[in-house]
Amino acid sequence: MPESGPAWDVPPNWSPALEAAREGGTLFLIGGVDSGKSVLAAILANAAFEAGRAIAVVDADTGQSDIGPPTCVGMARVTQSIHDLEELSADAIDFVGSSSPVGHLLGAAASAHAMTLAARSRGAETIIVDTTGLISGGVARALKSAKIRLLDPDVLVALQAEDECEHLLTPYARRERPRVIRLRQSRRVKPRTREQRTARRQAKLRSYFAAGRLIEVSWGQAPIDNSAWTTGEPAPGHVRAFAEERVECEVLYAESRADGLLLIVSGRPNGAGLRSLNQDYGGPARAIDINALDHLLVGLLGARGETLALGILESIDFRARRSSIFTPVDEAAVIKGLRLGTVRAARDGTELGWIEPGDIA
User: Fold this and answer.
1) 162: Cβ–Cβ under 8 A, 6 or more apart, which residues?
2) Residue 20 near residue 174 (C-beta atoms within 8 A)
3) How far apart are CA 232 and CA 243, in angstroms?
């Protein structure tokens, strides 16, 4: 960083937030898309650093991540003055699986909580939580409310052009905590177009996977924590053949569980035929389209359930019960679990498509 320091336009009315950062505690930032939350987070981190605090930033904006790759919540400690959050290297990440929190509210809230706990466990005195720009509608209220309950911040810092965040702040008007600080956006904020946002995610993913390699991961070694797939036993061949007749498409793999049957299929299964299997196998029969798994982003989990890294699911060997995953991780042995995402991506970071959470059963 140049000795002159960052040339920020810090409005005078931001002083209460700067003082809160210097005092310590958890500051939870709220603001819309392109409101300047990331710049504010860097300014607050510097204020806390200058005050001698141990600082960490939790980046919960999974679509426009500054700390760690997209689709993850990242956490980084701040050990020197910074210009912006992209200078920080992630100390830990937690895989949500999507660049948007919509459809992933539980995962987004849980990941933000996990990374805030990680920051506290590393001795952070000031924790700055940068959130997504989703602030409108019931989904935004549900997500922000859940995160605030889980993270228990000392201060809510709302960055707004007018009063667009007020519906999120009203529930805390009469409470002792968290304290609410309202700030006006800087006039120097430069909005990004949709194309720029997409290009930025691609560049971040391309950089992340630049040192990747293909590894083989067995299902027994690394079961999936957010899908029925790999939680049961392989069904006998005659069950797969019977199911194939019913659903009228190719069944690549069948797995039986106490609560029903899981199929991985090629093609569109007959819905009536799929429902008819419920009576035969003790619960709902579910089908996953093999195309939904092609180049799917996955989280590679360690022995404590922590996210070690991201990977791209490139091929599946159903007979050997193992998957080929492109990832920066060197040793497959450290991987103890997988978490499926809902973004399909190439090695160069190009987004190939998106699936719904229900598509992976």
Assistant:
1) none
2) no
3) 16
Strand residue runs (E) in the chain: 25-31, 55-59, 72-78, 92-95, 126-130, 155-160, 179-184, 213-218, 233-234, 250-257, 260-266, 285-289, 296-301, 307-317, 322-327, 337-345, 351-354
For the residues of 212-239, what is the DSSP string, one character each?
A: -EEEEEETTTS-BSSSSTTSSEEPPHHH
Pairing state between β 25-31 and 126-130 = parallel
How far apart are the C-alpha atoms of 230 and 107, rounded to whole Å? 20
Whether the bond between 284 and the residue before it is cis, its omega within 30 degrees of 0, is no
Residue 61 confidence class, pLDDT cut points 50, 70, 90:
very high
pLDDT at 258: 82
The confidence score (pLDDT) of residue 195 equals 93
Cα(243)–Cα(115) distance, integer angstroms: 43
126, 149 in Cβ contact below 8 A?
no
Residues 6+ apart with CB under 8 A from 196: none
User: What per-residue confidence (pLDDT) applies to 260?
Assistant: 87
**3-class DSSP assignment, residue 16:** helix
Q: Dump pLDDT digits (tens) for 15-57.
A: 999 999 999 999 999 999 989 999 999 999 999 999 999 999 9
**Mean pLDDT to the nearest integer, 228-256:** 93
| Residue-level length of the chain | 361
- pLDDT tens across 136-193, in order? 999 999 999 999 999 999 999 999 999 999 999 999 999 999 999 999 987 777 788 9
Q: Where are the domains of the chain?
A: 12-191, 196-361
Architecture of the CATH domain 12-191? 3-Layer(aba) Sandwich (3.40)
Q: In DSSP terms, which residues pair with 263 in a beta bridge?
A: 254, 287
Give the global pTM. 0.93
Q: 270 with 248: CB under 8 angstroms?
A: yes
Helix (H, G, I), strand (E, B) or coil at 338: strand
